[in-house]
Amino acid sequence: MRKLLTSLGVAALVSLASFGSANAAGEAVELKSMNWKHGGLFGTYDRASAQRGLQVYREVCAGCHGLGLVAFRTLKDLGFSEDEVKALAAEYEFVDGPDDAGDMFDRPGKPSDKFPAPFANEQAARASNGGAYPPDLSLMSKARPNGDNYLYSLLTGYEEAPSDVTLPVGMSYNAYFPGHKIAMPPPLMEDGVEYSDGTPATVDQMAKDVTVFLTWAAEPKMEQRKNMGLKVILFLLILAAVFYAVKRKVWSDVH
């Protein structure tokens, strides 16, 4: 079952990279609008959801899509302990070296390593995916306008094609893809993963969770940025009040 899900995930998010160009060439599609916890001026990441999203990424998406800009150690920001990060990194194998004899060698991953690419090179990736090149997902949420709603809409937008629509062989119908004909099968299935926290793994839940995770992966310092912005705004307000008081004092005797 997991191999089947991985295969679907391999083909699935490949088409994410083509969405922007298709949107420019085809009709505009209004995306679903979700009330994300990380949205707005005071928004913060839902860490439980992001942790589940990491599980979805690893079990469904990672067969073809890398996270080449995300280091394992940054997962501590999502609430993972140092031991958990070390254990997760060690599940991956990296080529390192050369050693004293000049040879390369395999070693377990370390927290300082980044998520490895699933293929050795672009040619191998294309050969395994019918000529398509699966994009790295590190910045996918930032690479598309309204990125979180874009990801969620696309992942949950699969429907039966209307009777007046003929789908070419190998295409699926997606209500949120421009033209509605998309060359990837639905990547998520009910109970496609078994969440460690017992959350029911519905398609909607998995789509939300992996969207939160990929949004965090694209901007892991968002919360710090918002906090700094609020401090700057507060400082400017106080400074404006001080300047106004000084102005009133200086010009108080002028009639």
Which helices and strands, and how do they pair?
Blueprint: H1 2-12, H2 19-25, H3 47-61, H4 82-90, E1 93-96, E2 105-108, H5 122-128, H6 140-143, H7 147-155, E3 172-173, E4 181-182, H8 203-218, H9 222-250
Antiparallel strand pairs: 1-2, 3-4
Mean pLDDT: 86
Biggest beta-sheet profile = 2 strands, antiparallel
Strand order of the largest sheet: 1-2
| CATH classification class of the largest domain | Mainly Alpha
Looking at CATH, the homologous superfamily of the largest domain is Cytochrome c-like domain
| Helix residue percentage | 40-55%
* Low-confidence spans: 1-8, 10-15, 17-26
Structural class: mainly alpha
Radius of gyration: 23 Å
Encode the helix/strand succession as letters. HHHHEEHHHEEHH
Overall number of strands: 4
Would you write up a description of this structure?
The protein has 255 residues and is mostly helical. It folds into three domains: 2-70 and 116-219, Orthogonal Bundle (Cytochrome Bc1 Complex, Chain D, domain 2); 80-113, no CATH class; 221-255. Helix content is 42%, strand content 5%. The chain contains nine helices and four strands, in the order ααααββαααββαα. The strands form two sheets. Strands 1-2 form a two-stranded antiparallel sheet. A two-stranded antiparallel ribbon has the order 3-4. Helix 3 packs across helix 8 and helix 7 (147-155) runs antiparallel to helix 8. The chain starts with a helix and ends in a 5-residue tail after the last helix.
